[in-house]
# Entry
Amino acid sequence: MRKIREVLRLAFGVGLALRKIERSMGISHATASSYVARARAADLSWPLPESLDDTALDRLLFPKPAPSVDVRPLPDWAYIHKELRRKSVTKMLLWVEYKRANPDGYQFSRLYELYGEWAGKIDLVMRQDHRAGEKLFVDYAGQTVPIVDRRTGEILFDAQIFVAVMGASNYSYSEATRTQTLPDWIGAHVRAFGFFHGVTEIVIPDNLKSGISKPCRYEPDINPTYHAMAAHYGTVVIPARVRKPKDKAKAEAGVLLVERWILAALRNHTFWSLTELNEAIRGLLTRLNERRFQKLPGNRREMFETLDRPALLPLPTTPYVFEEWSVARVGIDYHVDVDGHYYSVPYPLVKRKVDIRTTATTVEVLFKHNRVASHVRSFLKGKHTTLPEHMPSSHRRYAEWTPERILRWAATVGPETAGHVAQIMEHRTHPEQGFRSALGIMRLAKEYDNDRLETACKRASKYRIYSYKGVANILKTGADKLDVRKNTPAAPPIVHDNIRGPGYYH
# Structure
């Protein structure tokens, strides 16, 4: 405004021509002419009244035009917002319906410009564009709930809070699990799908280690078990990008709601079991889903029944059974190790890598996506489950690895080693089941000298310890040296004037 006042002073007070004013002020002729013309239209002269401040001067020179009254009808924005989330519903379709009911209504571009202004006033999480039944956002809350021992009062563990949120309706599910490990993570998904009575097209998790083996912004590696669960339900897992919180804004908002309306409400409660905690969560979860929206009509449950529920994929006939996948190399005894128990595979696969699918009751071995072995799961450590059809036709003989060759090697160390290796194979149902222990003892020969290994094998045979770990522990603890000291003859007594001897004490 200082420059405008100076233009008015030069024009009305000094009487300077416009050309000279524009050169003096460094402004264009049109600008100077506009200021003078506006001042004349406002009946201003120089000097200006002292009571005329910059705000009043601006109002006189640049009066705002009177707002036009637009009598064209507006649609129900909440209805538009809700319908846009329905599958296959487009903005053009809704505009056509609006124009059919209101021929004098707004054109397409203006209508959705006004809709954008309305949508900008509601919560960010509500403004995101998610189709009905398309996405389910899952995550664990940062807060935990302690589970306390009723007898001692000590905290047994901190329960983890799983949260799942529907993309279109914000309908939420939550439960407490003991850990965030893969079995609990998968189990929570299965129960969440049951709660929603259907499956979304996409599941969007955070980059939780249980579900995502290797986080990557562009191509994250999904855990094979997580992938198998998604395939069972006909959905797909698309993790949120690393360091992109907007990708999982629904989950973040859902976690915040659960923490505020469920965990905060339970802050003064003491829970003695996970079951008791989940019962309390279920009651508060119902209340959360039935709370009215502040800026939209209805609540989460009503929105879910209207939008998401009809668009969900159907549940499979049977729920997903938890399974774990791993990769192993078949040993020379044609067995693979699963949690310390050994299961046989066809002997031609010796030294080949195979995929192992483990459930609570079965162990399946796959080679190049073909199942080559199936066993009933056993939890006995160090034992073997062997099928006769997996054994070589010559019965316990494959390639250059034979019991005879292993015994010949053991004999190069000494008779005690050879004898102990033979005893190891004799105490197995099939000699090949002792190959692993024998190969382990062969490796010990690289760490310890032959004399110590001989003594350790002798001690192991004496105490009937027929395993590699037993021999390794004897060497590691130095127990083999005890036998050496026992077999060493005692040194002669020392004779010296300063030593009293046994006679002194009689």
